[in-house]
Amino acid sequence: MAAAPVRLPPSFAPRFPAPALVALAFLLLQPWTARAHVGSPDVFFDGQIGPYPAHIAIRMPSVVPGRARIEVRPQTEKPLTVSFLPLYSKTAIKNAPPPEMAAPVIGEPGLYSGDLWLMSVGAYSIEVRVAGEAGEGEARIPVNSVATHQLPLPPFLANVLLGLGSLLVFGILAIVYTAAGESVLAPGAPMRKPERLKGLAASFIAAVILALLLKGGWIWWMADEQDFRRSLREGAWPDLTASVETEGPQRILHLALGEKAFKPDYAIPLLLDHGKLLHLFLIREPARDVFAHLHPIRSGGKTFDLALPELPEGNYKILCDFTLSDSGISSTASSSVHLPPVPAATPSANSNATLQAPPDSTSAASSPVSIKPDPDDSWSLASQDSVSHATAAEASFALPGGRQVLWKAHPRLRAKHDAHLEFIFRDSAGQPIPLEPYMGMMSHAAILRDDGAIFAHLHPTGNFSMAAQSFFAAKITREAAKDSGSSDSGEMDHSKMHHGSTGGPGASTIVLPYEFPLPGNYRIWVQIKTEGQVLTGTFATTVAP
Fold it and tell me: How far is residue 471's CA from residue 490's CA, in Å, rounded to a whole number?
C-alpha cells in the first residue's frame, strides 16, 4: 500500500503536561485564523432505509472529538424507532460502541434527531437504523471526521491557567528550598546561613531544571501546534498543481496531487469511484460558461494525465474529487490552469456545445494520439444569455436537439434549509426523456459559489462519496466473512438507491438532496445521460441567509 502515512489532524483532546503549562497558557492566548473551506461540511442522504423512504442530514462538528447532529425524516406517519451507530474505519465493526437512540422532534411530526460523538480523526460510516410496523432497515452514510477549526481559549481561562502554572512553579521551588535547608534540622530549630545557602543552591538547580522542562514543553507544543495547523482540513486538500502540454493534435493536462503534502516516493492509494480514480471538474473563469467533468489516468505515484477535449482557450478553475483506499477519507483538491488554443483534430468528448462535432467519446481524430480520452468524459458550453437565474419560479435551460431541462418551482432558497433540487428533462415535443445511468448514477451535479469557497459534487443519493460507502461495505463484508465464509464483494448498485418513481432508469426527473451551507450566488450544473449522450443543464441562483 502506501510508503508513508496520510497526514491528518490529531485528535482535539487537550494535552496539558505540567512542565509546559505556563507555555501552553501563553500560547493559547494568541488569536488563530482558519482557512476558507471547499465543499460543504454537512452530509445529506436521500434513499431507502428498508421499507422507508427517508431523508437524512448529518451536521458535522468542526473539532475532534465532537458531536454530530443527525436528523432523519422517514416518509411515514407511523411511529418508528431510530438509532445511530458510528462505525470507524480503523476499528472492527464488532467493537463499535452501542447505538444512540434518536428522539422525535416536538412540533415536527415525522422528524427524529439526536447527537452522536465522533471521537477520532478519520473516516466513519454512520449507520442509521429505522424500525417500525412495516419492517426495519439500515443505511450507512460515510463522513469525514476531521478538524476544520481551532477553538480559541477564553482569556479568563487562559489567565487562570497562567496563574495556576506560576503558582505551581513557585510552589515547587519553595518545597525544594525548604526540603534542602530544613530537612536536617531539629524540629523548631531556625535556619542558619549554611542551611539557607544550601536551600538557595538547591532552588537554583531546581529552577534551571524547571526552565529546561518549560523550554522543552514550549518547543514540543509549538511543533505540535504547527503540525495541527498544517493538517487542518477546512480548505482544499492536498495541494494540486497543473500544467498543459501540446502533443500533436492533443493538449495533455498534467496533474501532481500532494507534492508538498507527501514524501517524494509516496504513491497515493486511491479507491475507484464510479470506476474512476479521480473526478476532475474544469470551469472557465470568470464567466463560468464552460464546464467539464473529466477523468485523468495515473502516470506516477502522485501524478496523473488527461487528454483534454475541445475546451476553448482560457483560465480554468480545477476541482478534483478522490477517496483514499487505505482510510476511506474523501477530499477535494483545487488549483487553476490556463488552457492554450485547441490544436487541430482534437478528439471529441460528450458535449452540449452547439458547434461541437457529433458526440462520440469513443472515437478519435485521424491523427495519432498519445492518451486516449475517457469514454465518460463530458463538457458543455453555455453562454451567459442561455443560463437562467432561477428564483422560486420554474426555470429552464435549452439542451441540444430542442430538448430542455426544467428546474421545478421551489420555495426561495435559504442557507441551512433543505433545497430539494428537482429537475425534469424533456424532449423537443415536451415529453419526458428516459434517463440512463451515467457512471452508475442517474445524475451527477456540481455546485460552485461565485467566490469559489463552496463546492459540492452531488448525486440523487446525496453528497457523500460513493467510493467511501463502498469502502465500508467491503469492510463489513470482509469482517462478516470471517464467520460466515461469504464471498460477497460488497459492491453496491448506486443507481437503484434513490427512492420513488423519479430515481430509476427510464425516469425523467432527478431530485438532489442538498442544503446550501452559506448564502451567496451559485452556479449549478446538472448532468444526465440519454441515448448514450451526456447532457448538462446550467443554472444560476442566489441563496438567501
Answer: 9
DSSP reduced 3-state for 106: coil
Residue pair 236/38 in contact (Cβ under 8 Å)? The answer is: yes
pLDDT in tens, 33-85: 333 336 578 999 999 999 999 999 999 998 888 999 999 999 999 999 999 99
C-alpha cell at 253: 493536462
What the block records as the C-alpha cell of 333 is 483538491
Give me the amino acid identity at 428: S
The three cell numbers of residue 164 are: 495556576
H or E element, residue 118? strand 112-118
In the chain, the amino acid numbered 119 is M
DSSP 360: -
8 A C-beta contact, residue 114 and residue 68: no
pTM of the model: 0.80
Half-sphere exposure of 97 (CA within 13 A, CB side): 16
Here the cell at position 203 is 532552588
pLDDT in tens, 355-402: 333 333 333 333 455 788 999 999 999 988 889 888 778 899 999 999
Closest CA to 256 of 246, 307, 247, 266: 266
Distance CA 134, CA 112 (A): 17
- Residue-by-residue DSSP string for 350-399: EE--TTSPPP-TT---SS--SSPPPTT-EEEE--GGGSEEE-SS-EEEE-
Taking each helix axis as running N to C, give the angle between helix 193-231 and helix 155-182, from 0 to 180 degrees, rounded to the nearest 10: 150
Dist CA 52 CA 136 (whole Å): 8
What sections of 398-465 are H helices per DSSP? none
DSSP tally for the chain: helices H, then strands E? 4, 28
Q: Distance (Å, rounded) from C-alpha 376 to C-alpha 359?
A: 11
**Extended beta strands in 468-532, E state:** 509-512, 520-530
